Amino acid sequence: MIVTCPSCGRKFNLPDGSIKSPYQKLKCSKCSHTFILTKEEPEPEQAPPAAKEETQEVQPPRQKPAEIPTRAPFKVPQAEDRSIDTPRRRKGLIALVIVLFVVAAMGAGFYYCWMNYAEFFGIPMGASDKWLSIRNLEGQEIVTKEGTVFLVSGVVFNGSTKGRKFLILRAKLFDKEGKVLAEKDVVSGLSFSKEKIGAMQKLEIEKKLNDFKLSSEENFQVASKKQIPFAVIFFDNTIEKAKEFTVEIVESPIL
Asked: Average pLDDT for residues 208-221, to the nearest whole number?
């Protein structure tokens, strides 16, 4: 039997046997309102005395509990097993280190042989010849009978166990900005003093230089543990702007 609360409108489903009186007093379980329910077809023989009317609390129909959906067990993703790739990577790194070590060793060996044994093969080492050293280097302007010249002089010491056939030296003059003003190559073995150059003319100086180039090869040689002089003379007008100079050995063949 469907019963509606006249106060809140809540509907309840009551079994027919629970209504014992044609004027049953009921109480709403939602809003607690008390009201009289009149039964449509009362049965006198079953109706209890009016004095014994009872108030019955109407209970709402029980709701079926919601079904909880079944969930599949959650699987934690596992990291990939890369233990197989680790040996390969290690082998690659080891191979790379070995290659780099071999290349470095070959480079060091080549440099050592070049610096220490190139002279045995008759290779002109020049500026890379560590056994040759320039000493007593000087540069000065000298007034001659015809003008001013710039003299660069010094000696080359041969610290090697092998003599040298000759030495070619290259001298350069620079201005204050580092620009090359003049450059000249000479063979070692010839020396000039300041006083001697001051008493000579330009033609006399050039003749002496040419005669020395045509002289015996013994004048160019430098023995082991010995030194040999050199002189470079600049006649150019640009020497007035010269602020710096350099000298380097460009050729030094083994004797």
From this structure: 91
